Amino acid sequence: MKKKIYIASPFGFSEAGRDYMYGTVLPIVLEQGFEILDPWKLTPAHLIQEVNSMPYGIEKKNKWKELNQVIASHNTEALRACDGLFAILDGVDVDSGTASEIGFVAALGKPVVGYRGDFRLSADNEGSTVNLQVQYFIEMHGGHLITELSGLGESLNTVFGT
């Protein structure tokens, strides 16, 4: 039975991010024999498109509030069902949703592999690569943080096994 890896990242918000995630990053995870739990695909795209295409106003705001609960509930179910999490940490700071997902799975006792290929500084001090609490949660249950995508396959197998 394949281990389930939840993918936490902000890449689903942009076309360029999706292209990189689906064309470069996720194939490495799949090559290692893991099942991917992708939060960007847990809620049918047509539901998001319907709300997003509504005209600006209170009705759209209320529909987003409703849909946000659906999206968050689907993601939470997947976080509970996963064997661990792979987090993409690029950006000026770690994406707040990604940080939340890292904290949630750490509280569930699950390991995390974090990847930060971004060379900009994003840590609290010289002793960490990203926010110290985020890095602590990544390493809390035997996970670790990598800075080169070329080491992703080995990292996933070390932390999660196949």
From TrEMBL:
By what name is this protein known? Nucleoside 2-deoxyribosyltransferase
Q: Give the species this sequence originates from.
A: Reichenbachiella ulvae
PANTHER family per the UniProt record, alphabetical: 2'-DEOXYNUCLEOSIDE 5'-PHOSPHATE N-HYDROLASE 1 (PTHR15364:SF0)
Q: Which InterPro entries match?
A: 2'-dNMP_N-hydrolase (IPR051239), Nucleoside_deoxyribTrfase (IPR007710)
Superkingdom of this protein's organism: Bacteria
